[in-house]
Amino acid sequence: MSSTLGAAQVTAGYQAATGPDAADEPDRLARWTDGYRPEPGRPDEYRDADGRPRGAWPRLLERLARLSEPEIMARFVSAERHIRDTGISFRIYGDQREHAWPLGSLPLVIEAAEWRSLSAGLIQRAELMEAVLADVYGPGRLVADGLLPAAVVAGSPEFLRPLQGVSPPGGRWLKLYAADIGRGPDGAWRVLADRTQAPSGLGYALENRMVLGRTFPDVLESLQVERFPAFFQAFREGLASGAARSDPRICLLTSGPYSSTYVEQAALARYLGLMLVEGDDLVMQDGCLHVRTVSGLKRADAVWRRIDGDFLDPLELNPASRLGIPGVIEALRNGSLVMANMPGSGVVESAALSPYLDGIAQRLLGEGLKLKSPPAWWCGDPAGLAHVRDNLDAMTLRPAATPQRGAGRDAILGPQALAAERERVLAAFRDRPFDFVGQDLGPLSTMPAWERTDRGLHLVPRPFALRVFAARTPDGWRVMPGGFCRVSERENVDPIEMRLGIRSADVWILSENPVDVRHLGQQATPRVRRISGHLPSRAADSLFWFGRYVERAEAVIRLTLAHLRSVGDAVVTDISGDTEAPTALRIRALLEEWGATRSADMPTAALAQEALVGREVHGSARAHVISARTNAATLRARLSGEAWRVLADLIDLLSLDAARAFTESQLLGRAERALSHIAALSGLTHENMNRAAGWHFVDLGRRIERAINTSAFTLAFAHDEAGADCLGVLLSLTDSQVTYGARYMQGVALDPVRDMVLLDPYNPRSVAFQAEAIGRHLAELPALSADGIPEPHCRLAARIVAALRSGEAADFDVVGLTRIEDDLERLADTIAGRYFPNGPHALRPEKLAGLA
């Protein structure tokens, strides 16, 4: 058996098969390429039809061969670790699990001269798509003059009638065009599919380059690989062009963290400095689009949408949509909003358009296509149907309209599949022939990939598909010097879309001249500003709950540690001679109440294991950390890489094999290390996050949750009859033993312990300390009323602070503690109602303040 390898697999395969590397450069290169045989008649990037090395590949392989194999493999392992630490991942459509991003171990390399020719064809094609869209939604001359069948346009689900006659703000339907390309049988590049709806892959191309740029900086420099920043700078300027304001607010509209491409969307928002928003974050008012922020409504001038066009406006388009913004089409009509790409632009993705494109190009551009598609025939045309039916055994059959979401390559039937379903296909031709396009697609071209065999590591040809991008900028179309490449791990699987068994590859364009290595933003000196930006309400919600879940995880871990350390405790006798039940029973009861364990009657080790790493319980430490990471996934643009690494390490630490029984000492060590990770995460958020509204909400979440948990601890372990053992556990849970011991020499007593964990403003674990911090955070957050009267959440926080400042330890019996705990829970709900988009009855900012 053989398999195409990613970075970690390459390392393992090399160490297993070849041992220490001692070969010099020529021998190493010969060993890699020995037996490299492309399939006859199938174009290959490395070998031409006569088996000779071609293009830029010899330069790349010769440069890699200067490195020893152990060094190469160590770099690949570093790349895999970086992907894991920074949370670069993807989802397969319909699958809620995240999969680590499968970066391949070799880039696709293209010489500068070939790239110039390809870029010229791509720009021409982008301009053609723009012209077709302007005609389809405008005068309709292409249909009237017989250059384009009306059914190809009107029959497409991507043709959105409410956009008919709309003039795009900024004058352009497309801000970004992409094309999936591969080599045809003659070796020339051909367009397999046009992408104009909401092209994906740009962010993953960026992530691929960032990872390999860290892994092989010397190779990139020596080969003079073209860089991305100038393209992205121009693309951002293109997004802003046409906006009414000189300093426009640009939003990236996502369907949310369960989108299959959410990670790349977040990466693009972070890299380009865009506001990442969902439909619920946006609202139409007075004919303009606004973002709901914790400071009130803020005008949105431009939107880069990453949801399908028909889902954009449930009022005028798809009424079932829960992803869009009601009424947003009106902002496009009145010119107050620039959108990339315009809704309805997906109509030119139709495969049924392909047979007519060359003729349309002659009419609209005055020249034929430079970058052609494979020959195609629309079955809605009688001549096309006859040709497809007569040549069905050699055809690839595609849907005329864009495939259903998630269908992807499964909607395309190649010759083998057609042979097996011939009768069904012929019946479909009789009923709805216009639904199909026949195409001489042929097999995809191949490129080198590593593979492990019994003889060691070798290069083998594997099918690939390349997506290239062109952006509309203020200076015209500009092609990204690279792309998004997918490579199959098997020779008989087409990598048209990302799924298991498909890897991604960086794309290197080798320049003939030294390249500009400046980063994004270095092309021009920006105006100095000290503004924190506006925080969308949804982001504030996620930040708040991120803080709460981290604190919940810490509380469960501390309880579990206290339980493990109290095992074997006897019944305790206090000074008065009374006895109490072992503290372990109280700890078990609290863990069961919090949902960290299904039963308080489990053996000690089993209970501790479930509380720490349980997968079947909602309140385990692992469950809370995963919930924290889920919330953090919506905030990738706001958390540092170090914070992501700590989160990843913490999840690994709490991901024990559920089938294995661990000892109490092993669990104790695991819990102590988990606490250290949480402390590191707390330090990173405290020291690395900008002191803007986002940081306030993270810390608010932690402070409120800590105050609630400390109140619950005090109820359980500082009740009126509590003895020394319970009080000692409470000091341990609140990390206050050292402070208490330094202050009180006589031993533990109820009132001093209550005072320290509840009322001491100098103890960073006390409820009073949390309440004071909450009050300071709320004072820093924006107020939406101008009458000077404190808002409800501020008044409630002030009452809690006053009660703790004026109270005495003896006042906080069961009734007093319960009142404080209830007030804290109500404060959390009041903050949510004021700032977060959590339901139809939430106090929306637009109801409280004017526009900004």
Automatic annotation (TrEMBL):
Residues 107-488 form the Circularly permuted ATP-grasp type domain. Residues 25-52 have a biased composition (Basic and acidic residues). Residues 1-52 are annotated as: Disordered. Residues 535-836 form the DUF403 domain. InterPro entries: ATP-dep_Glu-Cys_Ligase-2 (IPR051680), CP_ATPgrasp_2 (IPR025841), DUF403 (IPR007296). PANTHER family: BLR2978 PROTEIN (PTHR34595:SF2), BLR5612 PROTEIN (PTHR34595). This is DUF403 domain-containing protein. It comes from Methylobacterium cerastii.
